[in-house]
Amino acid sequence: MPVLLVLLLAVAAEITVIVAVGSAIGVLPTIGLLVLATVLGGALLRREGLRALSALQQAVFARRAPEKELVDGILIAAAGILVVLPGFISDVLALLLLLPPTRALLRERLIRRAEASRPVIVVDSVVVNTSDGSDTSGRPSRPVVIQGDVEGQV
């Protein structure tokens, strides 16, 4: 129910802004601005999408986790959806998502939030500080492997 309410409010806001702009500058200039925003958004979408794809490929080839590149791709996809929706508010939000500095701010915030919500599981804490490679109890230190199945939420 809240999602439906948010969508209705968004549609009402878009219509209100279009009517306000239309009454201020006229119908044809308003339509022209909407078309111009869509064309500009499409061009930026293509450019930033290709950049994000290239960065993702480089991260994969470098064998590092492509978390930034994947989040960028998701944000660019969201901008693509917003750019095709008619309205000034959605176009402004899409253009903001397509600009690298604003997207970087949002990306870092999303990554921090995801890392904070990730569960942390400590399996074994062994302090290795002896010259023969054993832990403080005298046992040789080696990785602990626990095999099993996970059921339910972690």
UniProtKB/TrEMBL annotation:
<keyword id="KW-0472">Membrane</keyword>
<keyword id="KW-0812">Transmembrane</keyword>
<keyword id="KW-1133">Transmembrane helix</keyword>
<protein>
    <submittedName>
        <fullName>UPF0716 protein FxsA</fullName>
    </submittedName>
</protein>
<feature type="transmembrane region" description="Helical">
    <location>
        <begin position="73"/>
        <end position="99"/>
    </location>
</feature>
<dbReference type="Pfam" id="PF04186">
    <property type="entry name" value="FxsA"/>
</dbReference>
<dbReference type="InterPro" id="IPR007313">
    <property type="entry name" value="FxsA"/>
</dbReference>
<dbReference type="GO" id="GO:0016020">
    <property type="term" value="C:membrane"/>
</dbReference>
<feature type="transmembrane region" description="Helical">
    <location>
        <begin position="23"/>
        <end position="45"/>
    </location>
</feature>
